[in-house]
Specification:
The complex is a heterodimer of chains A (100) and B (460). Chain A is mainly alpha-helical and 100 residues long. Chain A has helices spanning 8-25, 34-44, 49-58, 64-99. Chain A starts with 7 loop residues before the first helix and ends with a helix. Chain B has 3 domains: 1-81; 86-273, no CATH class; 281-459, 3-Layer(aba) Sandwich (Rossmann fold), CATH 3.40.50. Chain B has helices at residues 2-22, 29-52, 58-81, 87-112, 118-146, 154-178, 185-204, 212-233, 237-261, 265-270, 291-299, 310-315, 318-330, 349-356, 367-370, 392-395, 446-459; strands at residues 303-308, 334-339, 364-366, 379-383, 414-419, 439-443. In chain B, strands 3-2-1-4-5-6 form a 6-stranded parallel sheet. In chain B, helix 4 packs parallel to helix 8. The termini of chain B are far apart. The chains are: A mainly alpha (100), B alpha/beta (460). Chains A and B meet through helix 1, helix 2, helix 3 and helix 4 of A and helix 1, helix 2, helix 3, helix 4 and helix 8 of B.
């Protein structure tokens, strides 16, 4: 596989810091924004797509089974991502027009 | 080169964090959403750029782009064509797609990888199991939100759920400690994925309909954790960061929702269903009211409170509600919307609907802001809400919802509850409010009732 840039201990650091940042960032969010926030976070979880992108680009050109499987995974994850962001956008648009 | 790629990933990670941060502030939420989306695009482009490297394979790139385009278009279509009332379902459905993707990626990796290490295999299996559980769990949540499903044999399902959970844990431990050399990893991961798919179903079914928002948030967090495990397996920091961020925010939101309902996550997930309250509806004497009478009551009230619930969403009554409010205000009355933190099927669900109907932001009050002064209202109109105004939560220790904070609608001079029938609320608890002296019931579809009241008000 292609080589990436973290060692095991870096991974642990990243894990713990992300955890702390995640909790810190969404503290004190007003209840009105919970649904958009959940949907936005849901869109971000579609980052799993990266794994499929790596697969689809690194397998041999003739490995159709792997290519198809990875492409299908990409379609699903992309629906999660684009749907999530668009629907969050839609919800938030409603709030902002009525605010003024 | 490495520096450039790493910097790009760093930028996209900052995009996620900044995006989530801004999404917590009403005025900047939209910007936050765009920043997070931008971070996502950078991450995808950088990964593609990095893997393609110097040797582009045309077929693979075609596969990548067609899949990306198809996914984006489908997602966009779904997002813009869904009813605003169906928002919780949609989030749940999107989450299901993410979970399914996690399963496929793990299995595919098991097919592709040439050298196997126990650690990578372990990460892949855990990613697949969590993804599978989140996939079927979200699908079930979707159907439960869409329609109230009733399953009779809960005991068997709970037993099954525990049974499969134990099998998954034991198989994981066995496989990675004893190491069956004969069993190929591919077969193992497929079997475990199948089990997790079944587990997602049996895990979700016993959970009560009223707890679905908590469940959706929880499953969302699970998908995040699945992503994080895959991130470790792929050795990709950005996947790890994104996954953990979602996991952390998801768990935190889950706890916040639980505390709003005054229940613990453990109780929610155990799907504990107590029998309904001690009093039965037959003992209650209820008073009904017609739309015309309601209209005249409203016309002579100065301070009016509107308490919306899921029924308003179902009847699509938010627009009619807004019209009524405008007319009442034109007659000089003051109107306040009071929203319970868990009204509807998701926190903020009611706010979204009212915002859609263009109700002004400052007219919407949180439960805590007005609860101490509920006596000031001449009349409270409860539209399709039940459990959130149920006084049994305060004085009946036998009730399922005992201990949940409620809007003290019963303190106002007159309460009018719009309902379709005598059915209990989503929790299944009896509502003694309906039997109180100052409470009248207006049966019928909320939208229809509202428009009839409106016609009458215009005539007065």
């Amino acid at each position: 596989m292609t080589h990436y840039f973290i060692t095991d201990i870096d991974g642990v650091y990243v894990l713990i810091f992300s955890l702390l940042i995640g909790i810190e960032v969404i503290k004190n969010v007003p209840a009105i924004l919970h649904t958009p926030l959940m949907s936005g976070a849901n869109a971000i979880s579609g980052i799993i797509l990266i794994g499929a992108v790596i697969q689809v680009l690194s397998v041999p050109e003739t490995a159709y089974f792997e290519l198809t499987l990875a492409s299908f995974a990409i379609v699903l994850a992309t629906i999660n991502i684009s749907g999530g962001f668009f629907v969050t956008y839609r919800m938030l648009s409603m709030f902002t027009t009525t605010k003024k | 080169m490495e520096l450039l790629i790493n910097s790009a990933f760093l930028v996209s990670a900052i995009g996620f964090i900044l995006g989530l941060k801004l999404m917590g502030k009403p005025s900047q939420a939209k910007l936050g959403n765009s920043i997070a989306a931008l971070g996502m695009i950078i991450a995808i482009a950088t990964t593609a750029f990095m893997v393609i490297g110097g040797a582009p394979k045309i077929t693979n790139i075609i596969f990548l782009f067609s899949a990306l385009t198809a996914g984006t278009l489908i997602g966009r279509y779904m997002a813009f064509n869904a009813e605003m009332t169906g928002m919780p379902q949609l989030v749940s459905l999107f989450n299901a797609f993410g979970g399914a993707s996690a399963v496929l990626i793990s299995i595919n990796e098991a097919v592709i990888q040439t050298e196997q290490t126990p650690l990578i295999n372990f990460l892949l299996v855990v990613g697949a199991v969590l993804g599978g559980m989140s996939f079927t769990g979200s699908i079930i949540a979707y159907f439960k939100l869409e329609k109230n499903v009733n399953i009779s044999n809960l005991k068997l399902i709970k037993f099954l759920s525990l049974f499969i959970f134990v099998i998954i844990i034991v198989s994981l431990l066995m496989y990675f400690s004893v190491r069956f050399n004969g069993l190929s990893f591919l077969i193992f991961i497929c079997a475990m994925s199948m089990l997790s798919l079944i587990y997602g179903v049996v895990f979700t079914i016993p959970i009560g309909g009223a707890d679905m928002p908590v469940l959706v948030s929880f499953l969302n967090a699970i998908t995040g954790v699945a992503t994080a495990f895959s991130g470790l397996a792929f050795n990709s920091p950005i996947m790890l960061i994104g996954g953990i961020l979602v996991g952390a925010t998801g768990v935190f939101l889950t706890f916040q929702m639980c505390s709003a309902m005054n229940r613990s996550l453990r109780v929610v997930l155990a799907g504990k269903i107590k029998s309904a309250g001690s009093s039965s509806s037959s003992e209650m004497e209820i008073q009904t009211i017609t739309p015309v009478e309601t209209a005249s009551l409203l016309a002579f009230s100065n301070k009016i409170a509107i308490i919306p619930g899921y029924g308003m969403a179902v009847a699509q009554a938010q627009q009619a509600c807004f019209e009524l409010q405008k007319n009442l205000m034109a007659k000089g009355a003051s109107v306040t919307y009071i929203i319970h933190p868990v009204a509807g099927r998701m926190p903020g669900h009611m706010n979204v609907l009212l915002a859609e109907a263009k109700v002004e932001y400052h007219m919407i009050k949180d439960m805590d802001e007005v609860n101490d002064t509920m006596e000031q209202f001449d009349i409270c109109i409860v539209i399709g809400a039940n459990d959130v105004v149920n006084p049994a939560a305060e004085d009946d220790p036998e009730s399922v919802i005992y201990g949940m904070p409620i809007i003290k609608a019963y303190l106002s001079n007159q309460v009018i509850v719009m309902k379709r029938g005598m059915a209990a609320g989503y929790s299944g608890a009896e509502n003694p409010l309906l039997g109180r002296q100052n409470c009248k019931l207006l049966f019928g579809d909320a939208k229809e009732s509202l428009s009839r009241i409106l016609d009458e008000i215009k005539r007065i």
